[in-house]
Amino acid sequence: MSTKTLALAAGVAVAALLAATAWYALRPGQEEDRFAQCRGSAVSGGAGAIGGPFELVNEDGQTVTDSEVFTKPTILYFGYTFCPDVCPLDSMRNADAQRLLEERGYEVQTAFITVDPERDTPEVVKEFTDVFHEDMIGLTGSPEQVKAASQAYKTYYKKQEGDSDYYLVDHSTFSYLVFPEVGFVDFFRREDTPEQMADRIACFADAAG
Question: Spelled out in words, what is the top-level CATH class assigned to the domain 47-208?
Fold first, then answer.
């Protein structure tokens, strides 16, 4: 093979490598790399595996979409208002993280999606969320709407057998961080403190620009 042919072949190989590298760097989902230093948890399948579109009913009885809810960085929680301990504690922790961030000059919000639409009407959800933060968004909907939102965020819930009025609901307890136009970026466990959450959310907000 001539020197000219070898040079041509090498040039083609380099061009192909650069094209492949560019495709890898720019393919969907890779923009999340800007948050790598902020994440506290690894998600199987990547951040894109969690979240998605939904339609629910807000505290005013209006049907809203996910894009209408997530207008700023949002701490999202799935629970129910009759929950005796975990949901109130987690909701207060999330609201405390919001207040810490607001004190630092960040615009954030919290949102609560019920997994008990049978009892949690818009009015009930509003009364519940107002206890923790006046701007916490409360969301309910039909059983089908709630199930779709729960499945999008890979949450678990199951109504326990028992009294028709005083039953409990088993459910997962993660809190999710969702950014407008980006979607889910990370989640928080119950042991995370408001200060730890605020620090990580501030990191994400700064990285998002």
Answer: alpha beta
